[in-house]
Amino acid sequence: MDKRKGEVSVPRAIIRPKTNNQITAPELRVIGVEGENLGVLSLAQALALVRPGEGIDLIEIAPGAKPPVARLMSFDKYRYLQEKLEKKARRAQKTAGIKQIQISARAAQNDLMIKVRQLEKFLGEGHRVEIMLRLRGRERFDKGRAHQKLKEFLQMITTEYKMLAEPKFGGRGMMTHIAKK
After folding, report:
1. How many Cα neighbours within 13 Å face the side chain of 102?
2. DSSP string of 68-97?
3. Per-residue pLDDT for the chain (181 aa), expressed as one digit of tens each?
4. Domain spanning 20-92, CATH class
5. Strand 27-31 relative to strand 69-73: parallel, antiparallel, unpaired?
6. Domain coordinates of the chain in residue numbers?
């Protein structure tokens, strides 16, 4: 997260589930050490199953359920599994994005080949790619030539792709979106 002027970074709140004597619900649906359902038990019965010498705690994992769900397991193992799930979720969020490739209407063939290699790298990584053909000055009025230049660039791409959007004019040029098939 970018820190802007005047912003104070606030650490994420650490949410700890209730364990053993912190649990206040009168009845709990208890899941055993091996993942088996032990049924609905009173709090006293559930606490009797706790084995602190073996590192087995009663952890409330779904406090909003009726009745709340608790599991018998090591608290350290529970924390480890939760952190692992969070990391996996963060990794999944970052995977797909939109990358942009800008080309000029006056770009030489070799320059376009460099852009094609970069575009194929993006497609190989699973990104969607926005191709922007920048038009300057009088180039904006010759739309047929711009269309032809973009078509030539798309024909240079060797990776199979699908067009997500037809080429359209807007802003300072012409753009289209593509993704890997």
Report:
1. 5
2. PEEEEE-HHHHHHHHHHHHHHHHHHHHS--
3. 455 566 665 555 566 888 888 888 889 999 988 889 988 988 888 888 888 888 888 889 888 888 899 999 988 898 899 899 888 888 766 656 789 999 998 888 999 999 999 999 998 888 899 999 998 888 888 888 888 899 999 999 998 888 888 889 887 889 999 988 8
4. alpha beta
5. parallel
6. 20-92, 98-180
The tokens of 176 are what?
């289209």
Q: What's the DSSP call for residue 4?
A: P
The number of residues making up the chain comes to: 181
Q: Regarding the domain with residue range 98-180, which homologous superfamily does it belong to in the CATH classification?
A: Translation initiation factor 3 (IF-3), C-terminal domain (3.30.110.10)
CB atoms under 10 Å from CB of 76, counted, come to 10
Say if CB 146 and CB 135 are below 8 A apart.
yes
